[in-house]
Structures are given as C-alpha cells and as structure tokens.
Amino acid sequence: MKSSHRLLLLPVAIFFMAFWLLPVSRLLILPAEQDWRLYFVFLTEARYAWSLINTLGLSIGVTLVTLILGAAVGLYLGRQQFLGRQLLLSILTLPLSFPGVIIGFFMILLAGRQGLVTDITQALGLGRFSFAYGLAGLFLAYLYFSLPRAIAAYAAAAQSMDKSVEEAARSLGARRWHIIRDVWMVQLEPTTSACAAIVFATSMGAFGTAFTLSSQFEVLPITIYSEFTNFANFTLAASLSITLGLFTWFALFLTRRKENVAGVAGQ
After folding, report:
1. Range of the domain at 214
2. Which candidate, 110, 112, 177, 198, has a CA 20 to 30 Å from the CA of 255?
3. 56 alpha carbon, distance to own chain's centre
C-alpha cells in the first residue's frame, strides 16, 4: 500500500481506537478489577438473571411476530399492484423515523393511565384498565418499532423473487402451501435471517422505549442504566453490558455464518 493511502487510513484508525477499541477494552477489564466473579453475576443473582430472561424472551417474541406480520404485509405489497400502494407503504414504514421515546409516548397515549384504552374501559364501567407499563405495552411498542423494517425488507425482496420458479411449481401441480414452503420461503431465507438478526439485536438493546414503559417489567438495558446512574456501580454495569453484548453478538454471528454457508453452497 502506498504511503499516501496509509495516511488516508490514519484518521479512521485514530477514530476506531478512540471511540471503539479503548472503551471496549476498558469495559472488558473493568469487572476483573473488583472481582472476576462479576462476569457471571447474571448466573448468581436472581434479579439480574430475571432481567436477562425478560430481555431475551421479549426480544425473541417480538422477532417472531415481526417476521410473521412483516412477511405477510411485505409480500402482499411487493407482489400486488394497486392504486395508492406506494402511499400505503410509505405510511406503514413511517415509524422508522421515530425515536424510541416517541414510540413509548404513543403507547402511553394509547394504553397509559390517561390513555384512550383507559378512558374507554372506564366509560364502559370496567374500571381504569391500562397495560402500557408492563410486558404487553413493551411488546406492542417494540413490535411497532420493528415491524416497518420487516415490511420494507420483505416488500423489496418480493419484487426481486424469481416468478418462473413459482410458475413451474404451479404447472407441476404444487399446492399453495407447498409453493409458500418450497419456493417463497427458500427465496426469502436471506431476508428472513437478516431481519431476524436486526430485530433481535434492536430489541435486546432498545433503551428509549424501555425507559419510557418498563416501570413494571425490567429489561437489561434499564438494569444497566440503573446500576451506573442510581448506584454508581460501574463494575456491575460493565459486567451486565458484556453479557448483553455477547448475546446480541452471538445472534448476529449466527446470521453471518448462515449467510456464508449459504453463499458457499450456492457457488
């Protein structure tokens, strides 16, 4: 590599070391400075174990429902042509521009203590019913945040599908379910894997929405925030951050590995 090219890489290298390598290195060694057993605190302390389990369960559930709904809506919009299709797609993907705090606020307006659902249930004589601040509220808010990404991805993938394979399957007498399973799902597998990884990783690390709604259901990002903000327990926060990062990284690693294996098999 020429010296001029190396000079061009210097700002990138400095930025990488200052804002990624040094903070991550500090994060990794911080728990060991107090007690190496802090690396496994989620295995020994029930509160942190449940926080991790809540986060994993919520993220997996949101990912599965997002894939199902996103595929159904995205495939329809990608394969059908009708008046107002682009407008409808734009409206459905509009939440992509909203930060998590706003989505949490939307959920409060819908199902909070002063929300629409509460007003309706009170008017019907059922009492003041709200679900914004627990598992149901977090789940719906995460789904609202994740679904537009899946819809956009599946709509784009549907437009690039090879329709000749589907027509060949129909000519051979394949039923609709067989076409969905053996043609659509095979062609959409890369999109499904990528969407699953992105939605899972986003749900695992979501903070703004969780900060707004998680007063009755604790998730790991809020636990981490509470430890270093309320208690100045930086070593424990670092340990929990490593745990959160490892689970998220592992999901992304499996997706990349699957894509690489599929690419090699296809060559």
Report:
1. 30-266
2. 177
3. 11
Tell me, yes or no, whether 224 lies in a domain: yes
Q: Rounded CA gap, 132 and 117, in Å?
A: 10
- Count CB neighbours of 16 within 10 A: 12
Other residues' Cβ atoms within 10 Å of the Cβ of residue 188: 21
Q: What distance in Å separates the CA atoms of residue 143 and residue 152, rounded to the nearest whole number? A: 14
Structural domains in the chain (count): 1
Q: In CATH, what number is assigned to the domain containing residue 121?
A: 1.10.3720.10
Q: Tokens standing for 91?
A: 């409206």
SS3 content of the chain, % helix, strand, coil (to 5): 80, 0, 20
pTM: 0.87
Domain contains 44? yes
3-state DSSP assignment of residue 166: helix
Q: Which two tokens stand for residue 127?
A: 């009492």
- Whether residue 7 has pLDDT greater than 80: no
- Per-residue model confidence as pLDDT tens digits over 178-189: 787 888 888 899
What residues have CB less than 8 Å from 197, skipping those under 6 apart? Answer: 251, 252, 254, 255
